[in-house]
Amino acid sequence: MPQLVSVAPTVRQLRRHLDAWRRDGHRIALVPTMGALHAGHVSLVTAARRRGCKVVASIFVNPTQFGPNEDLSKYPRTFLADRRMLAEAGCGLVFAPGPAEVYPDGFSTTVTAGGPAKAGLEDRFRPFHFDGVATVVAKLFAMVRPDIAIFGEKDYQQLQVVTRMAADLDLAVKVIGAPTVREADGLAMSSRNRYLSADERAKATALPQMLRAAIAAMRTGQPPAEAVAEATAGLTEAGFIVDYVEVRAADTLAPVTSLAERPARILVAARVGATRLIDNMPV
Ligand code: AMP
Question: Mutation test of ligand 1: which of 44, 66, 140 has the most ligand atoms closer than 8 Å to its C-beta?
Fold first, then answer.
């Protein structure tokens, strides 16, 4: 039988475990997740372990980052499998609070995220999403008080929002980004991929393909605007409804018109059937 990692469902129990780790001189890494774990999440635990840290993963499907028409109630929940996967990855503890532990009666203070949170990417389609993310991540940082926190580049705008928030609020945690883990055909791993039908899954390969093609074209001199137009057309032809394809400055997410300006990132969000997928790559 594979082991299951221990679970702290309350902040009190979490602190009891973490105090013992600190007394033993360990550095602590936090890996925040919403569960339904896959190899992408495991890679974040591995990255934390490689830095010599004890790892606590949080599993919390945060209601405040979902919009009214999003998939909160049907978000996949696979808690036992998650615990097994985390134990195998060397994660030392799971913090899995219920909504009332995080948002007790009377809860009334939130974080409003600006800068990269208002870049006109995810925020155009999910207007309250990053305030929900920033608030829950600020709370997780306060609950865990980790030395480092690892986030996936898969959610690239989120990584920039959290990095900015930690700097702006002087939070004593180092935010570290980890590269996107992909399926063999290039599709970025995501808990939401399990919503895809076989036909949609086959179409979804177009997402990384179009990003790679756009990057190759830009590297040979095609202006970003043209590469974006071609990627959008290619995705539409492949059966996607495109929310955006954008080339942005890798740190601030400000628009760029030429690649000479600074390191850039290409970001995409597109829907196939009822499922919305996002991806991004360095240009
Ligand atoms: P989620 O459970 O979707 O909220 O994701 C939790 C963390 O895992 C976030 O920091 C994500 O960016 C990261 N993550 C999700 N998918 C991947 C992936 N394919 N590769 C690397 N990190 C990922």
Answer: 44
